[in-house]
Every structure is written in C-alpha cells, then in structure tokens.
Amino acid sequence: MVCPNLAAALVAVEEKAGHRRDIMTGYSQEFTISFGDCDPAGIVYYPNFYRWMDATFHGFLRARSIGHAALCRQLGAIGLGLMETGMRFRAPGQDGDRLVFSIETIDWSERSYRLSYRAHAGERLLVEGFETRGLFQRDGEGRLRAAPVAPLRAILG
To answer: Could you report the per-residue pLDDT of 31-45, keeping only the tens digit for each?
Structure first.
C-alpha cells in the first residue's frame, strides 16, 4: 500500500535537511551526431556526451539569464564549477542521429546543486547523467570556496 502523503513527507524531510528539488519544465538542446563524434566502431565516443551535457547547461543559463560569464560577474563568482559528474550509457548514438539533451531536475542544497540529464535520439534513451555544481567565490585568503547558491537559484527561477 502506498501512503498518499509519502511524496509530501519526503519533500518535507529534504527541505528540513536543506535540500530542495525543482522539477524543470523541460529545457532541451538539440545536437546532430556527426561522423567526427564517433569512434572506429561507428558509435559516439563517450566524452562527447559530456561535452553535450555541458553545452546544455550553458544553453540553459543563456535561456534563463545572461550567460555564464555575465552571471558570475553579477554574483561576484569565479565560476559555476563542477564538483562531481557521472553518466549511464543506455544505447549507442550513431552518425546522423538527432540528439536531444534535456535537463530533467535540479536538486538544490545550501552550497551546491545537482542537475539530472537525459539524452534521446528519437524514442531511444541514450544516456542519463548528472552534474553537481557549485557557485565558487574566493575567500579572504584567496582560496576558492563553494558559496551559498540561493542567489543563483533566485535568478534561474
């Protein structure tokens, strides 16, 4: 039996722990896989999926705000850097496939945020990936530190 209030209870626990999930309403970016994106077996060389995932993130920033560099200037940040990334490869991509990379969710914590991605070619799910990123600023001694991400979240909506 499923408790009808289970989802609400889980959200309350996450928020109490300082985590918040925002379901994205579907930012997607399209790419066409070309021969040069593939390895000798004729399938996408895996680092290209990371390149497209990063390009999707930066496209999302441009669509929601003013782009990475201007956003960092506005927030007094050095960058919106990676802290962790990963990917599961579900099916191969091939030359000529139209790839649609989508940001599915963003999970917000105090000093980081985790983006979940999916990439499809038609109906085929090719990859599922994630990035954990931070808003980096220099402290009083010049060291990079993860800053609170609430100002970034307010801008991105």
So the answer is: 999 999 999 999 999
